[in-house]
Amino acid sequence: MPLLEIRGLEKQFGGIKALGGVDFHIDEGEIVSVIGPNGAGKTSFFNVISGMFPPDDGTIVFDGDNVAGHLPNEITKRGIARTFQNVRLFPNLTVLENVMVGQHCRTKQGIWGTIFQTKAQREEEQMIEDNAKEVLSFFGTRLAGYRHDQPAFVLSYANRRRLEIARAMATEPRLILLDEPTAGMNPKETVELTELIGKLRSDRGLTVVIIEHDMKVVKNVSDRVVVLDHGVKIAEGDYDTVSTNEDVIEAYLGRPHGEAGDDEESEYE
Amino acid sequence: MSLDPLTRRWGLIGGAIMAFTGAIGMLVSFDERILISPILSLGYLTLLLAPAIAGHMAARGKVSVLEEPEHDVAQGAQKGLVAGLIAGVFAVVFMLAVNPFDLSEFFPNINDRMFDMMTFDFGLGLGSVVLIVASALAGAAGGAIYGLDDEPREGVFRSAIWVILFSLFELVVSDVIEVDAIVDLIYARGGGLHIWSAIIIGVLAWWLGVRYKGRRAELTQMAKDSEAGSRLRWSLIGVAALLVIVLPMLVGGIVNELLINVALFILMGLGLNIVVGLAGLLDLGYVAFFAVGAYGMAVLTSPLSPAFSPELNWWVALPVVMVLAAIAGVLVGTPVIRMRGDYLAIVTLGFGEIVRILILSDWLTPFLGGAQGITRIPGIPLGATSVSGTSPELFIYMTMLLVGVAAYISYRTQESRIGRAWAAMREDEDVAEAIGISTVQAKLLAFVTGAIIASFAGALFSAKVGTVFHNSFDVLVSIIILVVVIVGGMGSIRGVALGALILIGVLGGPKSQGLLGEFAEFKLLIYGAILVYMMLQRPEGLLPSVRRSRELHQEEAAQDAWLDKKGSFIEEPEASV
After folding, report:
1. Residues 127-166 of A with CB under 8 A from B
2. Is residue B235 part of a domain?
3. Which residues 9-28 of chain A have a CB within 8 Å of chain B?
4. What is the pLDDT of residues B295-331, one digit of tens each?
5. Least CB-CB distance to B577: which of A109, A154, A188?
């Protein structure tokens, strides 16, 4: 049974059909890329899975339960974490606090424990901090040491992206949705992050869905590629199959005139 | 010499302030309070402070980050003189314009006393000249002070501030000293410092400042060091606690009464601080929970409660009141759970008024007494006695106890799982929800915690005053609590305490007078002026929390962080990949 199985997912905003009946599945331990031209509905797809918008129709079965229409925090608690295309950290919290807050749904101390400083509360605080540091160490020296106590807004763009992934990892998900994780990174940083995405699976045992525009990254990390266009899935398969698919090329480049089509395939290399 | 436009602008502003404070009667009213007998009253201080500040600002000129400011006494004095002159001329023109333009129709406070005051009792002819000269001299002094080097300038400020503090807080100081003979040495019979005691205080403040300058740097250094710092902090907290315990015994009933009002507002400020400062929910109807606390306590303890009067002991009733407030928190919180920002503010504003109007309504009048209110609320039983507003020396300790509880709750929640969830929610509600925080729960918890703390204040209030009426709970109370929190520093416990001390203690609360009765009429004006100034110059408040000041000064903080760790930035790219 797949970890996540989506059938007939539909979402409409006003007159625009962002998702027009998408079917999708991912098995435990897979890395699947979702690609498509701008406005294809990729981010809407993530927003609906993560519960930020309820779907108009369709089912989202995660680990055997239909989670369509649940609140985002319930979905996160079940084990789906996400990052955002336009990095959305808590800028005035420190780096460490950003990750600590990610553990909220895995911890349970309430107001009483806080006020009376019970032993359980103190132990849990310590655990949250240790876990957060451990998660940050996943990024090597990038977010280590003095960075822990810096507010998130002083970070460089690439570090913000890393921190967002760390925050998502802190929710202890089984499935992580990465929305353009390498956008705005330089080639070196992109290579580094590509390796880390692989490690998310090999070291952390996570299943990963990734929206990505950088085809090098897509080629390197994905077991399978799903192509969306105008809210519909137009192709699916391994990278080579998809990158030579006529419909995909057309979606990205428009209908080729004469010989033009052959050259432009290099876009995907 | 051509006229610097900045000098002109500040001169005109100074003159406008002089004219305005005169026109609204502030000068005359402030003239009652003598600061240094017999030469200086608060009114004249206000009158001359305007050109002095104008002179100071004119001498400062345009502030540039790149250039070191010039410090030249003569040049500063010259600019200040011009600005002060302009201000004085403006004020005289205003006085001359009163009759031809019938200004007293709009400003009923323009009267002979104002003229007498602004002309230094010399009559309009000679007095105008005197006013212009005095204003120019004040401006020159302000400008010259700017021209001084750092150390003497700070000395002048410190001396001036301490002299003014000592004279303004005459009541507190003489209460603390108690021995009349010593008090008479410092203060004149009719109020105000003697000239020579003012000089001694000024010189002492200057000397102590210079003497302990090095010590202070040492202490700040020590505070940064973790071990010595924590010892220092604890000893400071110890001293503060001791002061808090001992002070009410030393000061008299009037000051204690004031302190009780301050403490009630600290309580409500702390509660609102959780809702607004920590959780970021702008609640403009916070007085509703105060009302629930006060009326709850009234109904449960007063023998005259109209429909239901169990006449409980205050201590027994308190938990019930807390539960009532918690229910009120949920009732107000639930409908607004999906609202944000402005909408939340407007709706809560409405709720605040709804509660007050409900108290007056036919529906609740049989239970809450409507316009008649509830009277004969007993005090707080403490051993054999009953503590109420008639014994402020004891009641203050009750309020302090609950302030302590509220401060402790705020302190603990700030750096906890719940506090982090609130902070996250304040920063970005959608993302907070997306990373697994139930914003519904977090918001309700904030409302309920805030409501319970406000109910403490309400419970104390009804026991103190002995009566509750609907008009103690109007919208102004909500606004003033919010102002206390904003001026003090959002998200900061110390800030709220300081804000309440300054605004409620010195200026006066919505229904109570502050230490300076003269301010009563102009309280809201001064509140407004402080608020505008704070928003422009120090939006994070007087003693802000770290997060809050980061929020408002992101760019500077980012630069500082970069400068601090410049070395690490350079080495970093090699560190990985």
Report:
1. 128, 140-142, 146, 150-151, 153-154
2. no
3. none
4. 999 999 999 888 888 999 999 999 999 999 999 999 9
5. A188
Q: Is residue B408 predicted with pLDDT exceeding 70?
A: yes
Q: Is the same domain home to A69 and A180?
A: yes
Considering only the beta carbons, identify the residue of B416, B435, B437 that sits closest to A114.
Answer: B416
pLDDT at B570 over 70: no
Q: What count of residues does chain A have?
A: 269
Neighbours of B413 (CB within 10 A): 22
Residue A1: inside a domain: yes
By residue range, what is the domain housing residue B297?
Answer: 251-473
pLDDT tens, residue by residue, B462-521: 999 999 999 999 999 999 999 999 999 988 999 999 999 999 988 888 888 888 877 888
Structural domain range at position A29:
1-79+173-269
- Residue A167 CA to residue A161 CA, distance in Å, equals 10
Q: Cα dihedral angle (B259, B265, B271, B276), rounded to 10 degrees?
A: -140
Average pLDDT of every residue of chain B? 88
Q: How confident is the model at residue B238 (pLDDT cuts 50, 70, 90)?
A: confident
In a domain, B392, yes or no: yes
Nearest CA in chain A to B553: A92
Which pair of tokens denotes residue A268?
Answer: 């995907």
| Domain endpoint, select from A171, A189, A214 | A171
Pick from A100, A154, A188: CB nearest B558 = A154
Q: In terms of domains, do B301 and B415 share one? A: yes
B282 and B421 in a common domain: yes
Pair A113, A240 in one domain: no
Distance CA B92, CA B104 (A): 15
Q: Is residue B214 part of a domain?
A: no
Q: What is the pLDDT of residue B549?
A: 77
pTM: 0.88
Instruction: With a cut of 50, list the residues of chain A below it in pLDDT.
Output: 259-269
Residue B83 DSSP symbol: H
Q: Give chain B's contact residues with A (Cβ, < 8 Å).
A: 408-409, 412-413, 416-421, 423-424, 427-428, 430-439, 445, 449, 547, 550-551, 554, 557-558, 561-562, 565, 568, 572-573, 575-577
Across the interface, whether the CB atoms of B420 and A115 are under 8 A apart is answered no
CA angle B396, B400, B401 (to 5 degrees): 120
With respect to residue A84, please indicate whether it lies within any of the assigned structural domains: no
First to last CA, chain B: 65
